[in-house]
Amino acid sequence: MNRVLAFGTTGMDRAAHLRAAPPSPRRLLILCGGQVSAGAEGLTWLPPDALPPGGDIFLGLDGDVPLHARDVAEWPAEGLRNLRDMMTQLSPAEAERAATARALIHWHRSHRFCSACGHPSDMVQGGWQRLCPACGTSHFPRTDSVVIMLILRGERLLLGRSPGWAAGMHSCLAGFMEPGETPETAVRREAMEETGVRVGAVRYLTSQPWPFPASLMLGCVAQAESTELTIDPVEIEAARWADKHEVMEAVIGRHPDLVLPQPGTIARHLITRWLADDLD
């Protein structure tokens, strides 16, 4: 069973003390249309003279080497790869750098104007802040908290399916936390809203930064107090209870109509830990 959890924190040196006056780049990661500069062996870091100066985000240091990322409008397709497709092929350090770059660049693209006065804002602090020159308001990168839950009832697991997924694909239930909620409250609310299942005890297990576009997935284990399913078709397309034999068959690709999330995702990680009786 592949229990790799992609994008885990590795203690990347983000060198926040250097952001006010970032060092010149010595290695540059390109992002174009959400894809990253990469080849068969992993990320492709360009030398600093590969592009004219300007518009870089300072990611931090690799030893004493400054790492930067840049969003570009055009780049040769053969030099780009989808980060989601290659996430388990990267080293933990490279995956964290790529995830950080992708999330920050998405934030800059979607927050170009000041939310206080509407004036175009400027990128400052090496790309970790935007400042409005008109009203002086500072804006900081946004991360959206999402609960994703392994809902159990005895030896069975609750799986859901969203519209538009590939045939047979099911995953753990998940949803965005709302203002004023704890993760435990969000788990119970989402389970009830999506499937009508009442949840009791909830505990946190692990987390995963998810740069598609900029979420933090909070993995929880929850105990169901009911089993009857009442699907909200606005939220999900279907839900089902599955026992360990069914889930194992899906892991090895032998189940006729059940497909699980790809390795590297927190959903797959939670499911395989349950199969391995490793939820402590």
Summarize the structure in words.
The structure is a single chain. This protein is of the alpha+beta class and 280 residues long. The protein has three domains: 1-108, Nucleoside Triphosphate Pyrophosphohydrolase (Alpha-Beta Complex); 111-142, no CATH class; 144-275, Nucleoside Triphosphate Pyrophosphohydrolase. The protein is 19% helix and 31% strand. It has five helices and 16 strands. The strands form three sheets. Strands 1, 2, 3, 4, 5, 6 and 7 form a seven-stranded mixed sheet that branches. Strands 11, 12, 13, 14, 15 and 16 form a six-stranded mixed sheet that branches. A hairpin with a 6-residue loop joins strand 9 and strand 10 (138-139).
Q: What's the mean pLDDT score?
A: 96
Q: For this structure, what is the CATH homologous superfamily of the largest domain?
A: Nucleoside Triphosphate Pyrophosphohydrolase
Q: Count up the helices.
A: 5
How many beta-strand elements?
A: 16
CATH class descriptor name of the largest domain: Alpha Beta
For the termini, the CA-CA separation is 18 Å
For this structure, the CATH topology of the largest domain is Nucleoside Triphosphate Pyrophosphohydrolase
Order of helices and strands: EEEEEEEHHEEEEEEHEEEHH
The CATH architecture of the largest domain: Alpha-Beta Complex
Bulk shape: globular
Strand content range: 25-35%
- Helical content stands at 10-25%
As a whole number of angstroms, the C-alpha radius of gyration is: 21 Å
Domain count: the total is 3
Largest sheet: 7 strands, mixed
The secondary-structure class comes to alpha+beta
